[in-house]
Model the fold of this input.
Amino acid sequence: MKTLAFLTLAPPLLGGLILIATGRSLPRRTCEVLACGAILASFAAALTAWITFPGGREVLTLAKWFSAGPVTASVDVLIDPLSLIMAVMVTFVSSIIHVHSVWYMRGEEGYVRFFCYMNLFVFSMLTIVLADNLLFLFLGWEGVGFCSFALIGHWYQDSFRGHAGQKAFILTRIGDVAFVAAMAILVTNMGTLSISTIDERVITLSANGALVLGLLFLFAATGKSAQLPLLVWLPDAMAGPTPVSALIHAATMVTAGVYLLMRLFPLLAISPDTMLAVAVVGGLTAFWGCLAAMSQRDIKRILAWSTISQVGYMLLALGAGDITGSMFHLLCHAFFKSLLFLAAGCVIQVLHEEQDVLGMGGFLRKARPEIFWLFLIGALDLASIPPTAGFFSKGRVLESVLAHPGLAYRLLFILAAAGAVITSFYTFRLMFLAFAGEPAKPFTHHAAVLPAGMARVLWPLAVLALIAGALNLPAWAQSAWTGNGWLEHALATVPGVAPPEHGSHGNTAELIDLGAGIFGFALAWLLYAPSRRPGVQALVSREDGPLGMFRGGLGLDALYRMVFAKPYQALSGVLWKGVDWGMVDGAVMGAGSAFAWASRMVRPLANGKLTVYLTMLVAGLAVLAAVLAGGMR
Amino acid sequence: MSVTQLIFYTLAGVIALSTGLAVFQRQPVHAVVYLVVSFFATAVLFGLFGAPLPAVLQIMVPAGAVMVLFLFIIMLLGREEPKPRDLSTLRWIGPAVLAAVAGAAGTTLLLLPAHEATPMAMAKASARELGHYVYQNYWPAVEAVSVLFFVALAGAMFLVRDFKARPGASSDTQGEAQPGSQPGSQGDAPSGTQTSPRAGQEEAAQ
Amino acid sequence: MTAPLEHVLALALVLFAMGAFCALARRNLIMILLGVEIMLNACSIALVGASLKWQSLDGQAFTLFLMALTAAEASVGLALFVHARKRAGTLDSGGFSSMKG
Done:
């Protein structure tokens, strides 16, 4: 098991390092094969580990790192069902994305940089997934932050893309401050940074201590997972290449925050206030993201806000106490959202970098039917139409919220259900606008021809998106041949997984979910079906006008700019021009110019005139005589 | 106050007055003549102080040789027209202040009542005694002074070896190499005064 | 009994100040040299007076050397003035300021 853990972690790291060292001197095909091969090797190792896993949980130490006082950091790996399932999902989705991006980046010159960072990113993510020691996990945490900055800003020559990368990095960094503070509190209160040990010693915490720790870790998770209040970086991160969005913003980095909270679930669970806080953050973000998504015109931004919203659902399920439900939705979302992103990438390349949904139309469906079907599968998942995986996973989330006692959770359920309606609405709005009817902006080019592999390689994701619901069918759908809540049983040994308690509510949640999906479809059909769509002008003005009012993310970004960014920039300007140029440089230059002025003042004495020199001589003698005379007194 | 004291004060007044007048003369020739008077009075002062040899030598050397040499050179080089801006008083302020301060400070220091100023006893050192003294105690200095004279002679001769007067000077000096001025020699004084075409300067008006 | 040494020194000082003034305030090179002569003369007076006060012949001996120096220096200086007049055409000290700056 130790070897397998090592073989899961090492290949992406080695791939990245080899590409750094020798990438430019290797032929292009070798680099691509090396990068994809590293991830595939990692996937093979993770799958083998899962298959041969005997059960329970194990902590393996791969290497010692350092220890300073009470703080010990070591390369510890925690093997239990949760981490193995997550590792398998991460490596599987990453390998598909790597292969796809070989074709996607076919015209790119910076491919060495791209694949190197992709490999290092996967390594960092696997570190987060498998780590037992919190400092080792933090290494991966920071690693994904840095690699996402590098990947989002891949085309940094356009300054706004570089700024998008910086924005992502800075905002996740703000969350990391909370992470470090939480680690410090853990060390002082519990004396350990090992997750498995923390799970055991959780009972020793006071109520306030648990609340503080829980809130700190929640804040750190909101940074990485783009939840309130740190969600503003994710829509701008669409400036990166689309495979990057598929990897980072569908399957891995945004799920890292949720995963961390799952890992530390015992810590959260002993404080009901923390759980409520998690659920509230998740629920509010879910609704917030829906509203923003339905106002976007950029296809990638729709998907970005949709990610924010769906991760909110995962957090909501976690806040309701259901690790299984949250993990179920995490897995399904990884499959269908990465499918959606990659298919969107294909659409963008077909239309020669057109990303505005109003510039797409039925001609796209006729020209590239394969992409349309892939997109449709992903969309059905997102809108929770049965029998796709999304239906079952979102239904499970709603179920767990409904099952939780408390008024707050009732309100959150209503919010989540309304969010499900809007989710379905914006999903089918996207489908209608992108694949049906006349484009509002005429498309004058020829649709580009893509390599066949780009769409082919997405079919495994599509199949999984369709059938992954079988991972954890709800009670009323279970039968002998569809499996009996496989995921539930698989995760049973993970601390914090409570036995399901949804007996009394039956299938209410799933019915509400189904109803929400159909209702959303009906709304979208009413507004956007080609036969019922208003003319081009009216459509554009409607999209930019009343329906587009949430496009700015409900003003959160603008608020942050006004409250934090602008004063900081003003302060920087003052410090730069006022203090650095004015005072520091001014002092130094002033000293210099003072000396120059003094010498300019003295220079007329050296005018070559004999009289002046004689006068100075006698004056000096007079001073000397005066001093001597004064001394003699 | 004794006679000798009185003589001293009189001589001091003459010396100071003539020197003061010399300093403020516009023409260098006038200044030289005043200085000759000053040096004569100084010689008498030396005699009063019982130094007959220095007294005579004071007449012979500074008054007789150096001042005459000055006259030779002034006559040789001719007169220069003063420039108008020489007549500003601003130039004089600095040196005047310095001189006044130095003089005043020094004299007050010396003439303070606390400083006991006893009159000096008279004495006289004959030439023979002085001569013996010098050659007994300071003969290296005497030798050095003789070398100094030789060097000065050589230097002066070298410096003026091919002196030609400026063009535009009076015709009797054109094209002639004037012999260099030497101490004690009779140089040719150019006849009359020459006016230089260049706008030379004279002393600033006092 | 003649005047006290302090008065002699006062006279020498006044003469020295006048000589310094002449050397500094006059533009004509000849006058500058005359100022130097006056200063040397003042030193001679002081030396002879001191010699009388302390009843020592050193002062008078030094006066002899001082006179020799005066003569040598005046001759070389005046030769230089001739040379300078030849080069610059003027005996004004303002004309020799090419070493300025």
